[in-house]
Design goal:
The chain is built from twelve helices and ten strands. It has about 325 residues and is an alpha/beta fold.
């Protein structure tokens, strides 16, 4: 994910300072958002978007430090937070009671919007002789950081493709070292390019980011509808061509317990200030309400549906919850 270079203030201090400069509003409803560890870039980004929404709506939005997407889904289900950062696989599985949420569905989960895309990288050393995903069969390969979203997605994708590498599970830093010294042929990660670890390894041991075929993309996205086709542009990594891969999204979920008015005001204020958010939180740049709706597979919050329809977006019937019909 793109690095943040400002170092004069910590992300939390910057958000608090900026909030103090915003024009005061009278809040009609307090809304809490579970985010991620405070040291993460996501915590900074969600602090910024909370400030913007609070300044342009009757909502008083506050952020809470959590362990991330899975914890947020569980807390939403228990009613401990009003909204939460969530990734697309987590939202899909939690609502449908599949995967990590088997027999524990959160049927009241509702999506509000997607904040930014996140891109899967599968890379190998150029001198490994591996040029395609099929070449990874039996090869010693790291599927991403232990317990991370990239590892989970990699396991699912390779199962869907019928390819079985010899997965070597370790931390990202250990995987980078193992690629450099040749103990493994490559590694993967889910984030916003360029990935710092990939850039660093590429400088000493040139990498090749593997590119998926159209057939592989179709197979993977049919089996895993929360993933979508995306591209790592040419030149993202030095002297490296463009690569076709899979992407997912990081966004904000609520439950049907959040009032329609709160969901509407949050969605409206967010999209009307997306340009301002992109000035301080680069991952959000380029996102639109249309892109958000097009890449949603979990029912939307009734307030979000109301806003999207208001601005002329046709919301698919599958995304309209019972309370919004």
């Amino acid at each position: 994910m793109r690095s943040m270079t400002h170092r004069l203030l910590t992300p939390l201090a910057a958000a608090v300072f900026a909030a103090g400069l915003a024009a005061p509003v009278m809040a009609d409803e307090a809304v809490s958002i579970g985010v991620a560890p405070a040291a993460s870039g996501w915590y900074f980004g969600f602090s910024e978007l909370s400030r913007l929404v609070s300044g342009d709506s009757p909502l008083e939005v506050s952020v809470r430090e959590t362990g991330g997407s899975r914890e947020n889904a569980i807390r939403l289900g228990r009613g401990e937070i009003d909204m939460g950062l969530i990734d697309a696989p987590g939202a899909f599985e939690a609502y449908n009671g599949e995967g990590r949420y088997e027999n524990d569905a959160i049927e009241q989960m509702r999506m509000v919007l997607w904040v930014a895309p996140s891109t899967m990288h599968w890379a190998v050393r150029q001198d490994s002789g591996i040029e395609t995903f099929e070449d990874l069969e039996g090869a010693r390969f790291n599927p991403s950081s232990i317990g991370g979203g990239g590892e989970y997605i990699t396991d699912l994708v390779f199962t869907a493709l019928g390819i079985a590498p010899d997965f070597q599970r370790m931390s990202m830093s250990d995987a980078a070292d193992a690629v450099v010294d040749g103990r493994i042929v490559g590694f993967s990660y889910n984030g916003i390019p360029p990935i710092p670890a990939f850039t660093e390894v590429h400088s000493s041991r040139p990498l090749r980011v593997l590119s998926m075929t159209d057939e592989q993309v179709a197979t993977a996205t049919e089996a895993l509808p929360f993933l979508s086709r995306t591209e790592i542009p040419e030149g993202t990594y030095r002297d490296m061509p463009a690569a076709t891969t899979l992407g997912t999204y990081i966004g904000i979920a609520a439950t049907s317990e959040l009032s329609e008015e709160a969901g509407y005001e949050f969605t409206r204020a967010y999209w009307e200030n997306i340009g301002r958010l992109g000035e301080t939180f680069a991952p959000a740049r380029g996102m639109t309400a249309e892109i958000s709706v097009e890449n949603t597979t979990t029912p939307l919050h009734a307030g979000a549906v109301r806003y999207y329809r208001e601005i002329g977006i046709e919301v698919p019937e599958a995304l309209v919850p019972p309370e919004a019909e």
